[in-house]
Amino acid sequence: MMKTSIAAVGLLLATCSVSAQRTPFTYDDMLLLDRISGLSVSDDGTRALFAVRSTDMEKNRGVRSLWLKRLDAPKEPETRLPLSDAGFSDARWMPGGTSIVFLSAREGGLNQLWRADAEGRDATQLTRLPLDVQAYRILPNGKGAVVALAVIPSATEDEVELTVRAQREPKGGSGTVYEKLFVRHWDTYTDGTRNHLFHVDFESGKLTALTPGLDGDVPGKPFGDEGDFEVSPDGGTVFYAARIAGNDEPWSTNFDVFSVPIGGGAARNLTAANKAWDASPRVSPDGKRLAYKAMKRPGFEADRFELRVLDLTTGTEAPLATAWDRSVEQMCWSRDGQHLLVTADDLGRHRLFRIDVGSGAVTPLSKDGHMDAYVELPKGFVFLKSAMNSPSVLFASGPKAKLIDEGAVNLTRVNAGLQQKEFGAYEQFTFPGHANETVHGYVVKPAGYIEGKKYPVAFLIHGGPQGSFGDMWSYRWNAQTYAGAGYAVVMIDFHGSTGYGQAFCDAIRLHWGDIPLIDLQKGWDHALKQYPFLDADRAAALGASYGGFMVNWIASQWNQPWKCLVSHDGVFDQRSMGYTTEEQWFTDWENGASVFDTPEVYDNFNPALFTNDWQVPMLIVHSELDHRIPVEQGIAAFTALQRKGVPSELLFFPDENHWVLKPRNSKQWHDTVFGWLARWTAAPH
Q: What does residue 10 show for φ and ψ, rounded to 5 degrees?
């Protein structure tokens, strides 16, 4: 059993020495890595469940298996559970920890709740509903669950029966009539259904509608899950977050937190006063307080998520840790009910923090890397954590550690073969960016780095734009795959990035093409001076989403340093983007106006108006199912390049969305991108 500490793992993976046994980490290695997720720990803290997703390239799909790790016997190897064989998702411990509950569509049926014993055997079906279960929460007594079903909303009819009946009715043609937006969202066209909550009793099978007629989704689409709703400790109340859609859903971020009795009845809006985003209701262990996340500014999806705590007895509420200038992502109550345990981006890392509910005092609990999941034990923590040189790994914290990732123990042998791979050493740097404000970045040395040698550079630009390229692992934009191919990597967290305070994040609004560009230019100049191994004459700039926009923008505004460019799902024409993207609040906020009201502001930083200056070879990547930045943006950029006679290629995927997810498509993406880089950045002969 491997018992390497995080510090040792970091040293092992980041070292630059070359040995006979170690080879550079490549994108082919990355595609075949096992991916850990879905951490669940039994109530007594003795056993952990986690899912492992492996890749079957021949069948072009991921294959999931469920594993059990005995935390009370850490020297014993983890075991694969038999329930994996027939398929599962969202597995977790039942209350009491004597059995495992999970979703499965085994035997060709619908996705339903199942239960197996603590060893993953003897699976029995808990629900037999006529619709797929989208998400679930088990009641504290284990006798039922709150489930989400995709139904046609109705306040007068049984929503499940109505939906089943509609599915059976023959259609007169292939057309669909829409009366309001969304017509499409993320990668699918809307079908008239909403995710609604129901209470199902396991013994009787009785189904009780909790959100009948709701013009909204719980969980929210497209990425919501069981984190959007929760059951009180006494099992009597369900809390959920939802946006009442109406006719302004595509340009509204007004989510609210509601409560409804488990037996059904009128829902109560607990956050009606806030017209911005309220999310993630979490009930304290004693059931007396409700914590949730709240933004302040309507129409802005990347405002700071601050914490608020509502006293469920008195109805009074107050913000928590208001002076802490970070936006909360994951959140749960501590076991003692006196603290909230939260994660947040922080200076190029994603860390775990403990917040005292009484005083608001914030204490960091992790040091570096990216905290992916965490569970507090009676003593210590078990957690999933990744870094720029490591995919997510399951750890247990040391018994006396103030920072849980110092001296932590690796609990599994998943991806143990990475010990034979060489990763590029990396470090963070700072420089004075726009207005001389401090900006952070990372540089990664190529695998097999030799002192005194110069290397071609991949200049990676993150999307969002409210995002970060920090100390994290990615299966789409992985800095180590470039290092393994012999490139040095430079990444800048320009103004607009998260983890540096809300004012820094806000600075990109109305300034997509100037303030971030200044940061990128100054960061590039600083990196060239600070790191002599960067070959300025063999550099390429690459980015996706907002990063793709920036590549399209620098093609005219800053094309001198680059031998080639890669623009993945990038905005080409800002006006067209404003008219066609599904989530209209995004373009409204970033441009300060609706394109229908003030179209001229969309031309302030519009790459489509500057194609006469395009001259650097560019690879365009776009996908048919991308409704966030529609495929016509990529086709138009490629058309411009071809009409201007600029060396260019278009990689088009008919079956992908804003991301490239299928294994063979990801392989093709990497082959094409790295082939493009090699073509234009190869050393002169």
A: -60, -45
Percent of the chain at pLDDT > 70 equals: 97
- Round the CA-based radius of gyration of the chain to a whole number and report it: 25
> Does an H or E element contain 55, and which?
strand 47-56
Residue type, 7: A
Given 234, 269, 304, the domain boundary residue is 269
Q: Which residues contact 76 (CB under 8 A, 6 or more apart)?
A: 1, 70
Q: Is residue 553 part of a domain?
A: yes
Cβ atoms of 306 and 349 closer than 8 Å: no
* 530-557 pLDDT, tens digit each: 999 999 999 999 999 999 999 999 999 9
> HEC profile for 416-451?
HHHHHEECCCEEEEEEECHHHCEEEEEEECCCCCCC
Residue 328 within a domain: no
Residue after which a domain boundary falls, among 218, 247, 269: 269
CB atoms closer than 10 angstroms to residue 639: 16
Strands of the sheet with 455-461, listed across from one edge: 426-432, 438-444, 488-493, 455-461, 534-544, 562-568, 618-623, 648-653
- Domain of 565, CATH number, reads 3.40.50.1820
The span from the CA of 246 to the CA of 228, in Å, is 20
Q: Do 151 and 28 belong to one domain?
A: no
Beta bridge partners of 539: 457, 562
Mean pLDDT of the chain: 95
Give the list of residues 6+ apart from residue 573 with CB closer than 8 angstroms, or none. 606, 607, 608, 633, 636
50 - beta bridge partners? Answer: 67
28 part of a folded domain: yes
**Domain range spanning residue 247?**
127-163+183-269
Per the domain annotation, does 529 fall within a domain? yes
Q: What pLDDT score does 107 carry? A: 80
Percent of the chain with pLDDT over 90: 95
Contact 676, 541 (CB under 8 A): no
Question: Residue 9: pLDDT above 60?
Answer: no
Consecutive H or E run containing 653 = strand 648-653
Same domain membership, residue 379 and residue 251? no
Distances (CA, A) of 40 to 43, 235, 552, 604, 619: 9, 20, 43, 48, 42
Q: Are residues 453 and 574 in the same domain?
A: yes
Residue 531 sits in the same domain as residue 453: yes
Residues with a catalytic annotation lie at: 545, 626, 658
Least confident of 12-16, 265-269, 617-621, 648-652: 12-16
Strand ranges in 71-193 using DSSP code E only, listed in sequence order? 79-80, 89-93, 99-104, 112-117, 124-125, 133-138, 144-151, 184-185, 188-189
Q: Cα(590)–Cα(584) distance, rounded to whole angstroms?
A: 10
Per-residue confidence band for 12, with pLDDT thresholds at 50, 70 and 90: very low
DSSP letter assigned to residue 323? T
Contact 540, 456 (CB under 8 A): yes
Spatial separation of the C-alpha atoms in residues 187 and 185, rounded to whole Å: 6
Q: How confident is the model at residue 401 (pLDDT cuts 50, 70, 90)?
A: confident
For residues 241 and 379, state if they share a domain: no
Per-residue pLDDT tens over the stretch 492-540: 999 999 999 999 999 999 999 999 999 999 999 999 999 999 999 999 9
Mind listing the pLDDT tens digit for each residue in 249-275?
A: 999 999 999 999 999 999 999 999 999
| Residue 480 and residue 592 in one domain | yes
pLDDT average, residue stretch 595-609: 98
Q: What pLDDT does 685 receive?
A: 45
Are 259 and 111 found together in one domain? no
Would the pLDDT of 305 be above 90?
yes
